[in-house]
Design brief:
149 residues, Rossmann fold, 4 helices
């Protein structure tokens, strides 16, 4: 039941040391991904809380991609492992609430992996397009609500 006229809004929470650097490198390499992706730089994915994810959905995101450092390579020792647990919890919560758990995903990227990051983004957008708009979007009174987290 996807809406052909609207593109899904994807929020990508990116670790400043690895995945955000990969996104920056993607720009330098002129690798493109659609404009309906909002990249949010975070000090560490371990700083992200379930409430941040739910707030993004509440404000109109169709999906969330959490991109952290490679496992074992976190600058804050185990921040990406904490994030993986919180993403797992959120997936379970979404599923129990009647939403698709595929709307949130975590990946691990190094600063040099610009191409894989763009591929993951495009793959996530394809998943969201197949799922259709988030049911939470219809609960938001403003279609063009600004996402502030």
């Amino acid at each position: 039941m996807s809406n052909e006229n609207s593109e899904p809004l994807l929020i990508a929470f990116c670790c400043q040391y690895c995945s955000y650097s990969a996104a920056d490198l993607a720009g330098s390499m002129r690798l493109q991904y659609p404009p309906n992706v909002r990249i949010i730089r975070t000090p560490c994915t371990g700083r992200l809380e379930v409430e941040f994810f739910m707030k993004a959905f509440e404000k109109g995101a169709d999906g969330i991609l959490v991109a952290g450092c490679l496992e074992g390579g976190c600058h804050f020792t185990e921040g990406n492992l904490l994030a993986r647990g919180r993403v797992g919890y959120t997936r379970k919560f979404l599923s129990e609430s009647g939403l698709e758990e595929e709307r949130i995903r975590m990946i691990n990227i190094s600063a040099a992996q610009a191409r894989p990051l763009v591929d993951y983004i495009n793959e996530m957008l394809a998943t969201l397009k197949n799922l259709g708009p988030s049911p939470l979007k219809s609960m938001n009174p403003s279609k063009n609500a600004e996402i502030r987290i």
